[in-house]
Task: inverse folding
């Protein structure tokens, strides 16, 4: 670090005192794509870099707390480099710079600066192995997940806000509310189909997506007099944080859960604290709705009995998200709104492949106001 007292300089100078020049940023960029890399792998990723300069940068970055060096005491004395938590915190800034550079290059004539594969956006939570797994296991699973949902939403939200400013943000919020209302109504339809009452117990039992325990940490802090939930780890928050999309992703958090509860049975579900706003957890309160100990036991039994029967695959959720965002953009902005959503889909296709984007587009053609045909749920 160049400066001994960060309080004597501007905030942007503080950042560039750690991430100064092409090489430091490139090292952080490549290390952020995986858990760790050997020196030889880094050198291969940076073929035009002088080896002596690379070694010097790695040493100073370790001294600055950006990376850590791990020596494996084997016969080969293997050494690997990885980002510290502090170093990883700089990645969203570099991601934003990366996307800005792509936009800039796209504005130039193709003969001056053609877009190459290594310039396409890279979003955390996606890698080559997972892309291959999607194709290999297509018959068994759709290969999508919460990170796809989070990133797709944020890309569409960003495009609408960039094109239409505050009106675009309001349109995003309206789209999320419609999306949540439709999901809540479908949950209620399943509940009624099974001869049950749409209440807070069954709301918690009939959720449409399956939380991955490794990605989500949800706890009930109280059942009486009102149900209170706390989410300490969330795959949406993580995807937005790692990809520099929090500014747009947070619009989803602020609207979706209240709309879900309202669509289900008119309940009021308050979001009192929010990870995306810097709070330690997302805190929810079901106003006027509590569960007795007997009902808590009934909830656990019902969840076991339902299994995955009320769950929908992620490609369904992605299609629904695209449909809600596109329909709302069309209603408010006409063809210009549709074009803004299409731009976001092109960016998603650039990052994750045209096949994935095409699957989402095809899924968006369903009727999301009614239950899917028998056999479509899993």
Result:
């Amino acid at each position: 670090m160049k400066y001994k007292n960060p309080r004597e300089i501007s905030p942007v100078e503080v950042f560039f005192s750690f991430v100064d020049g092409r090489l430091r940023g490139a090292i952080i960029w490549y290390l952020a794509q995986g858990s760790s890399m050997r020196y030889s792998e880094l050198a291969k990723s940076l073929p035009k870099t002088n080896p002596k300069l690379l070694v010097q940068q790695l040493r100073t970055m370790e001294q600055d707390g950006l990376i850590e060096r791990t020596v494996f005491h084997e016969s080969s004395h293997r050494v690997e480099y990885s980002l510290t938590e502090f170093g990883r915190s700089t990645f969203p800034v570099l991601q934003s710079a990366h996307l800005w550079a792509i936009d800039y290059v796209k504005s130039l004539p193709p003969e001056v600066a053609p877009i190459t594969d290594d310039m396409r956006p890279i979003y955390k939570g996606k890698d080559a192995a997972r892309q291959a797994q999607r194709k290999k296991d297509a018959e068994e699973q759709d290969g999508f997940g919460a990170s796809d949902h989070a990133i797709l939403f944020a890309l569409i939200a960003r495009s609408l806000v960039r094109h239409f400013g505050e009106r675009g943000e309001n349109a995003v919020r309206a789209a999320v509310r419609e999306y949540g209302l439709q999901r809540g109504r479908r949950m209620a339809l399943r509940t009624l189909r099974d001869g049950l009452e749409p209440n807070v117990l069954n709301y918690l039992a009939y959720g449409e997506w399956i939380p991955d325990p490794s990605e989500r940490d949800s706890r009930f802090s109280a059942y009486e007099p009102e149900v209170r939930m706390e989410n300490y780890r969330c795959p949406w928050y993580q995807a937005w944080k790692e990809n520099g999309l929090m500014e747009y992703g947070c619009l989803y958090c602020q609207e979706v859960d209240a709309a879900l509860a309202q669509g289900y049975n008119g309940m009021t579900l308050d979001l009192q604290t929010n990870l995306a706003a810097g709070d330690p957890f997302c805190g929810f309160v079901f106003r006027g709705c509590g569960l007795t100990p007997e009902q808590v036991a009934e909830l656990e039994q019902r969840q076991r009995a339902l299994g995955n029967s009320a769950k929908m695959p992620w490609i369904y959720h992605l299609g629904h998200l695209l449909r809600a965002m596109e329909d709302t953009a069309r209603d408010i902005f006409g063809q210009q709104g549709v074009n803004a959503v299409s731009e976001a889909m092109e960016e998603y296709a650039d990052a994750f492949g045209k096949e994935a984007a095409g699957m989402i587009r095809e899924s968006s053609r369903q009727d999301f106001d009614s239950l899917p045909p028998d056999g479509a749920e899993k």
Notes: Residues 120 and 350 are 6 Å apart (CA to CA). The longest strand covers residues 67-72. The two ends are 53 Å apart (CA to CA).
